[in-house]
Amino acid sequence: MDRSSIFEKKSVMIIAALFCCLLWGSAFPSVKISYSLLNLANEFQKILFAGIRFTIAGLAVLVFAKVKLKIRIKPTRSEMPFILLIAMLQTFGMYTLYYIGIGNTTGVKASILVSMSVFVVVILAHFVFKNDKLSWRKIIGLILGIAGVVLVNFSLLDASLFSFSLTGEGFIAISSLFSAATAILIRKNAGKVDAVKLNGWQLFIGGLLLMTVGFIGYPHFPAFTWATGLLLIYLAAISAVAFTVWFVLIRHHNVSYLSQFKFAIPIFGSLLSVIFIPEEHLGLEILAAILLVALGTLIVNRRSKKNLKLE
């Protein structure tokens, strides 16, 4: 029996997808706290830090795949091009742009722009997959979900934030395109490379590339303490677990349907930031946003029997 077949069940898919979103959401306060403790102000320092994180995560996934799952982790000649493509898009490309962009814009704008990947996935999937077409129900669900994401930050917005620069907002937006393209490619090439092997290698290779770029730009490694070391290990674990589970889910469920759950990432991120970062606060706009996101997800999840059969 396929060891990943349990992820075909809808109930397991929903729990696993939300768990991934919880992990990714927890990365926001974890990264902020790490930056503060390590005094990372230079953009290349942040890219180097990201590279260390993803390299460790990749190694952890590969060791787990080899020791626990007994997977042959050495890529074949036919698998390597696809692994390199995903590494360049997902870990190196997306996070290079994201970490540069986040240094030249606000976290508020970044969180909104990152959600563009959901729209792009839905649009691309409409043209790529016969059983993943746009519908009015899906469009309404997307609009409600995005409205919720915007509302999370509504009380923080003012006229001074509506500026645009290529290396700031532009890079964040482009990084979202990289994320969406990765999701489509993995779904389209499901089964071409084992999901766990793919995730391990793309994290490891992408992490090494990030480390290289970061070190060339700022040739000094962060001075880790036991606290920042633990945070680094946790961040690596987030990447190792969440990306592996998400890649497996993409193999068994259509991309735009699964991507709706990514609306939960900024919600979890906001709530966890309130808990762990003293400056953050929980306002009525966040509670209203959670309601909108939940409603949007319910509407999108109400699918016709025809579509369910197609899957």
Structural commentary:
By secondary structure, the protein is an all-alpha fold. The chain has one domain. Helix 6 (136-152) packs antiparallel against helix 12. The chain is 74% helix and 0% strand. The chain has 13 helices and no strands. The two termini are 19 Å apart.
Blueprint of the fold:
Blueprint: H1 10-38, H2 43-67, H3 80-102, H4 107-114, H5 116-128, H6 136-152, H7 166-188, H8 195-217, H9 226-252, H10 255-259, H11 264-276, H12 284-301, H13 305-310
Overall shape: globular
Give the biggest beta sheet: none
Order of helices and strands: HHHHHHHHHHHHH
Radius of gyration computed on alpha carbons: 19 Å
In the predicted model, the low-confidence regions spanning at least 5 consecutive residues are: 304-311
Q: Share of helix among residues?
A: over 70%
In what range is the share of β-strand residues? under 5%
Terminal Cα separation, in Å? Answer: 19 Å
Mean pLDDT: 80
Task: Name the structural class.
Answer: mainly alpha
Tally the structural domains.
1
Which oligomeric state applies?
single chain
How many strands in all?
A: 0
* Total count of helical runs of at least 4 residues: 13
Could you give a quick summary of the protein structure above?
By secondary structure, this protein is mainly alpha-helical. It has one domain. It contains 13 helices and no strands.
Key features of this structure:
74% helix, globular, 13 helices, mainly alpha
